[in-house]
Automatic annotation (TrEMBL):
It comes from Thalassococcus halodurans. This is Capsular polysaccharide transport system permease protein. One of its GO terms (cellular component) is plasma membrane. Keywords: Membrane, Transmembrane, Transmembrane helix. One of its GO terms (molecular function) is protein tyrosine kinase activity. The chain crosses the membrane at residues 36-56, 375-399.
Amino acid sequence: MSAQSDPIPLRPAQDGAFQTGHAAHHQRMAGHHKALIAKFLLMFIAPVLVSAWYLWTRAADRYVSLSGFSVRTEQTGSALELLGGVAEMPGAAASDADILARFIESPALVAKADAVLDLRTLWSLPGTDWRHPASDPIFAYHAPGQIEDLTKYWNRRVTINTDTGRGLIEVQVQAFTPEDARALNRLIYQESADMINHLSAIAREDATRYARAELDRAKADLKRVREDMTMFRNRTQIVDPEASVQGQMGLLSSLQEQLAQTLIDVDVLRQSARSVDPRIKQAEARVMVIEARIAEEQAKLGLGSNQDGGQDTAFANLIGEYEGLMVDLQFAEQSYAAARASFENALAEAQRKSRYLASHIDPTLPEAALRPHRWGLLAMVAFFAGLAWMLSTLILYAFRDRR
């Protein structure tokens, strides 16, 4: 056998150095393993155990009350609309659902619910004191807090799901007792119904505002014209000038007939009697009296003077003024009737399109506590803890390799 196939013997110094280096490597690896295990225990096992202890021993049960409702429009369309399927547009219902969802999340509703149900006490029932064995400082509300803090907690305990296509709304309310959960859900439904009624009232007022203004204007005009007519009758002491004129014309016709007959009688007397016959003088005096009366009655129909020497308004002018007032009165009455009919139609149309809240799921009274999701929360803690441990380990080994 050749000399090259024989192993080269190690010298004692080299053998000792090799063993020392190998032992040091094993010690370093053991230290790294211990540090890795310690980090695993600290970053994964400890958070999971603490979370499990808290979830099963300190976290208070929360009950969920469910309700479902939608915004409906009480609208009866025409036959063409019903055949065409456009009696109710889904966009309006979706818009109302969005408005209602924003209202449920608003601080205004939170403040009203707090005033009615005392939310600060209702949601802080488990307590936030660590020293108390039944305290739940993580999931309970930290009273008193500001309205902004209460609104943030409200949005974590009140869940709103909306179906924008059909305008459906589903509300889930969490509380630490079943009765509190249902009471709060009922309050949300009632306030939502009041809000929809308020929106309907605003829409109805907007729809009838113009018609109401026209009705008020027509009513004021009719009242003014009637007052003018009353003032005319009080001033002239004549209820109906046309009837008075007809009476004056009948009297004037009668006087003219009497005058004609009297003139005929005077002519007959002058031809058959002597010139000194007293009957002729009487007939002539009668003619003069009738002519004076005719002149007086004609003056009433034209321009004359009253007994006190003042100038009165002629019947022709009175009739013109009266006819003008009658035209104004008839126009005002017709305008008022048209405005009233328009207002009633607008009001009926607004009532026909009024909105209301329809409940298809009444607020429920829960029997079992569905929150918190203990296993789900524990799994989430374990996932993030394991992820943090793995990332920190990779970063640590990356720095070691660079050295």
